[in-house]
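Quick start: read one record
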Amino acid sequence: MVLTLWQQGTQGFRRDAAGLHHLSFQVETVEEVRRAEADLREVGVDFAYDGVVPHGEDSSSGGIFFHDPDGIRLEIYAPTGAGDAKAPVSSAPTCGFF
């Protein structure tokens, strides 16, 4: 699979406008998520939350949420393995959907 993103304007991502909420990539294990997190931290990526977080309270799936240079939220997650972490947002899923 190839995904190509290109600049469409001079403004950064607007959270108050319609458009892409976030883009998510699934990997097989939470260990792969943690390796990706370490690599991204090494290059100074801006994270939405600290560490691997579950998608919601008592959820086994979860991952890391970070921002590209324009502020668009990206996610790398695993379908299991994040259940021992506390969800950072209790009123809505970590990914932000209502």
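The first strand starts at residue 22 and ends at 26.
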